[in-house]
Amino acid sequence: VRNLFLVRHGETYYNREDRIGGDSDLTDKGLEQAHALAEHFATVRIPIIFTSNYKRTLQTATPIAERQDPCSIIALPEFNEIHAGVCEGMTYEEIRRQMPHVAKARGPNKYRYVYPEGEGYATMEERVHRGLKKVFFLNNYDENIMIVGHRAVNRMILSCFLSRQEEEIPYIYMPQDRYYHIQIDPHKRLFELVPYKN
Ligand code: F6P
């Protein structure tokens, strides 16, 4: 059985304001979460941590990697967060007020909806699969795997290991104080949502 630890980055300044997209830094709370993760995983061997290209995933992975000996961080653009196109940097409230057509169209069809000049869950599928292929290619078959990603991209990754209806995927719970522990077994798939901070 192989372990995949699927972690969402810690709190960012954008998260605090409910703003989407961008390349925001972790807040002090986000840094504390990263250090709590480092402590939590200190006795679990993780040779490589995969992240996206965004600062928030790299800043979360760095303290974890520092507690491992040795550990490399590999940033994969395939794990970048959903690109919200014209809505990047806006809050959900601003989208509702300034671009009601977006909020209206996305609501009932969140999986298939594609942001103007951006992406949708459905259009991310191919690149997320490509990223996972790279992960399995770069790790030895019996090693633990850690991916530090984002809300939407982690939902897509998780859905590759669980059977979920398309329309359920954009609503999978993806908190910042817990991670998904997925046990990859040829015969069964087990997953657990694990808190890392008291
Ligand atoms: O944490 C914010 C975020 O990662 C945004 O960058 C992204 O657009 C959003 O979450 C995805 O979640 P949802 O599909 O529920 O809007």
From TrEMBL:
The keyword ATP-binding applies. One of its GO terms (biological process) is fructose 2,6-bisphosphate metabolic process. GO terms for cellular component: cytosol. Signal peptide: none annotated. The chain holds residues 208 to 405 of 413 of the full protein. The active site is at H9, E81. The lineage of its organism: Bacteria, Pseudomonadati, Thermodesulfobacteriota, Desulfobulbia, Desulfobulbales. GO terms for molecular function: 6-phosphofructo-2-kinase activity; ATP binding; fructose-2,6-bisphosphate 2-phosphatase activity. It comes from Desulfobulbus propionicus (strain ATCC 33891 / DSM 2032 / VKM B-1956 / 1pr3). Keywords: ATP-binding, Nucleotide-binding, Transferase. It comes from the Bacteria. This is 6-phosphofructo-2-kinase. Substrate binds at R8, H9, G10, E11, T12, Y13, Y14, N15, R56.
